[in-house]
Description:
Layout: E1 12-19, E2 24-30, E3 37-43, E4 47-49, E5 55-57, H1 60-70, H2 78-94, E6 99-101, H3 102-116, H4 118-128, H5 134-146
Parallel strand pairs: 4-6
Antiparallel strand pairs: 1-2, 2-3, 4-5
Helix pairs in contact: 1-2, 2-3, 3-4
Amino acid sequence: MHCPFCRHPDSRVIDSRTADDGLSIRRRRQCPECGRRFTTTETASLTVIKRSGVVEPFSREKVMSGVRKACQGRPVTDADLALLAQQVEESVRSSGVAQFDANEIGLAILPHLRELDEVAFLRFASVYQAFESLADFETAIEELRAHPATGSLESVPRPDASEE
Length: 164
């Protein structure tokens, strides 16, 4: 690690601590040449390969914006989306692989989104599971009914037709 002050090619680690719920390491370093101290943050890189072949770093913000579209008009808050993005990142990192296709990230979102909101799940799944017909929607709905998600909004009361 080069010293940011004198550019000496070495530094000594004085202290190491985990940060961001264990996703990164904060190191306090000291330069043996000039004696000044500085802090570095180390994270394991996670990259996404887009359909076009472009490689870019994983972004929770992109996960949130993609899911936000599926949640439009649903009772889902920004805090819910932030938690979902964190859960997706944690599940992707736990696989031990550093590089993923964008489609794999989309598929990793599905189980977390199903727990959050089943309607948003169907919207999102129709893209990432490439639904081609109404039969694909019907199959997905039958699967949801057969195995309801524990945190779903299924218990939210729906207005009767007579109330409309």
